[in-house]
Amino acid sequence: MSTVQAVAFVVNKKKRPRVALPLQPFTTRFLPYPIPRTAMNETIRADFPILSRQVYGRPLVYLDNAATTQKPRVVVEAITDQYYNTNANVHRGVHFLSQQATELHEAARECVRSFIGAQQASEIVFTRGTTESINLLAESAGAAFMREGDELIISQMEHHSNIVPWQLLRERRGIVIKVCPITDDGLLDLEALSQLLNERTRIVSICHVSNVLGTVNPIRQIADMVHAHGALLVVDAAQSVPHRVVNVQEMDCDFLAFSGHKAYGPTGIGVLYGRETLLDQMPPYQGGGEMIQRVTFERTTYQQPPYKFEAGTPDYVGSHALAIALDYMQQTSLEAIARHEHDLTRYAIERLSAIDGLHIFGQAAARDAVVSFTIQGIHPLDLGTLLDRLGIAIRTGHHCAYPLMQRYGVESMARASFALYNTREEIDALAEGIQRVKKMF
Fold first, then answer.
1. Is 79 exposed, middle or buried (0-12, 13-18, 19+ CB in 10 A)?
2. Active site residue 180
């Protein structure tokens, strides 16, 4: 079923009981904007009610988008509308509500397929997020494609979610994990990667964009290198899907994972893309309802992908809301978002670089909307706490990338990360806030 055929509902607020009415596709129901919008006007900020609140009596400056983005009104409305009008378990009922909830859930799968350029909707598996997607791969792809002594390559810039699941696989199956180093500038050392690849390499798992450095890795080039050795490429796209056009066909990756909550969608919903031929070979990740074809006490047969990997009741409300969020980004224009955030990142680097004692990590020319830094004589935790009193929300700590902290010889960093609704004025507020904190020390 295509997105255009999706069914949505509206609450009649003037009459009781509530009336469920068939409506138009996602884009016309939830995004009724008569003219194209840019990622830099006030209409965008008005879509996010939380941005108008105050913190400690000051306007909120939210610069923690790499951790999670704020949600536009249309996403929250979509969740409310579905619970009020179309709440029923999917795939299992012949009654009206179940059929329409199922249509919304599968329309969301089609929306995701189109958004990332997958060939088949069956290549889209709904999970709880990037973390579960990679754990699923470590369990199921590990069982299908890796044996004791086989090798897997990750990099020094990976999030813990792209390290720990593979370490658990190493404990279970005796695989070998190799680590590709990065340069001082925060670039993946492609020459070192070519040296690590060999006939025993089965999987390479790399982030598209570093959640600490903002480095954008050349995934297509990496894919060519990996496939030349007959290995599979896994891409952690948690930090790229919200910021740029991501097309799995152009990247030529075998698997890709991302989270809804970092892409203006709800928490608890994520996506694993996998080539259909590979998903067919992989055993189920969990057992239970939904993923079965037939069960007897002697033997169970399983559904075809993607349902084979979706045991139990799915987050059908979350999948619908995720589709609304992805449509929201497309309506805003992914290209405009990328341009706007590139401008913000460049401006932030200029403003912060002018502050004495401030050191920015990562100097890649290709980078996304993340700036991580330390300030001589000020612990990042102290900086973040004091900026918070000024209404400025940044992230401090190891950012779930402790091996990367070790690479640079620090325990923690401060991180400002940007989204489509951020402004240059907010970066000015950050720079001025840092200067105020410096005077206190």
1. middle
2. no
